[in-house]
Each structure stands twice: as structure tokens, then as C-alpha cells.
Design a protein that fits this description.
metal-binding; globular; 28% helix; single chain; two-stranded antiparallel sheet; alpha+beta; binds protoporphyrin IX containing FE
């Protein structure tokens, strides 16, 4: 990506689209749970600056690849062993330094046979 394009993208996200996480411009149908939006090659391309959980630039998180690998491994192992269900209706969010669920996440884990 050209530097000028990168700066324009960052400006759109940080200045025009704030908060990007719930912006339909940054994420079409932003408020719907569509995890497939993150798959490569699926639908509209997400602006690379729209979600920066690990920061960006020279001081960005050095543990990013490690953390992502841990998350993928945990989820793969968890869904391999358990059926996971949720029977408590929609979960809201609250901001407590970071955005988090507004109540405990009491998932039901059923061991797969
Ligand atoms: C989901 C997990 C993680 C998230 C969301 C996360 C997020 C972040 C963010 C936002 C920053 C600040 C980036 C900036 O200033 O622009 C950061 C910095 C940092 N993270 Fe992480 N991090 C995660 C996991 C980890 C792990 C597993 C490690 C170590 C193995 C790690 C090590 C560091 C270090 C050393 C810095 C400071 C880098 C610097 O200042 O040069 N992080 N992280």
C-alpha cells in the first residue's frame, strides 16, 4: 500500500468513521454477528486500519502472532472436544477500560462423544 493511501485510510478510520467497530462504512452490517466477514477473499474487503487490537507501527504488539496462534489453538481444541451452547439471550457490552461483555458468559460445554 502506498504511504499516501495508508494515511488517507487511517484518516478515514480515526477521524471520519469513529467509532470504526460499529460503523457500517468500515464494516457492512456492522451490528450483525458475521464472523465470516474476517475470512480472506469473502465479500467486501475490510479496511486494514478499521480494527487495530494490537496497535500499529514500530511500537505495535510484539506478541501479536503468538497471541493469535494461542487463540486459534485454544478455539480449535475447545470445539474439537466440546459442543458449546449459549441459552441466555443477547449479550450487551460495557466499557471498563476495554469493551467487554456486560455480564458473565455462562456458556454450556457438553463433552463430544
Ligand atoms: C490478545 C492478546 C493481545 C493484545 C490484544 C495485545 C495488544 C497490545 C497493544 C494494543 C499494544 C500497544 C501497541 C501500541 O502501543 O501501538 C501491545 C504492546 C505490547 N504487547 Fe501485546 N497484546 C496481546 C498479547 C501479547 C502477548 C501474548 C505478548 C507477549 C508474548 C505481548 C507483548 C507486548 C509487548 C512487549 C508490547 C510493547 C511493545 C512496544 O512497546 O514496543 N502482547 N499489545
Amino acid at each position: 500500500m502506498e504511504p499516501v493511501e495508508a494515511i488517507r485510510n487511517a484518516f478515514e478510520v480515526f477521524v471520519l468513521l469513529k467509532p470504526a467497530g460499529t460503523s457500517d462504512q468500515a464494516f457492512p452490517r456492522a451490528l450483525e454477528f458475521l464472523p465470516e466477514r474476517w475470512l480472506r477473499g469473502e465479500g467486501d474487503r475490510i479496511n486494514s486500519y478499521a480494527s487495530l487490537p494490537f496497535g500499529i507501527g514500530t511500537r505495535m504488539c510484539i506478541g501479536k502472532r503468538f497471541a493469535e496462534m494461542e487463540i486459534y489453538t485454544l478455539l480449535a481444541r475447545m470445539f474439537h472436544r466440546f459442543d458449546v451452547s449459549w441459552n441466555h439471550g443477547a449479550v450487551g457490552t460495557k466499557t471498563q477500560f476495554i469493551l467487554m461483555p456486560d455480564r458473565p458468559l455462562n456458556f454450556t460445554f457438553t463433552k463430544r462423544t
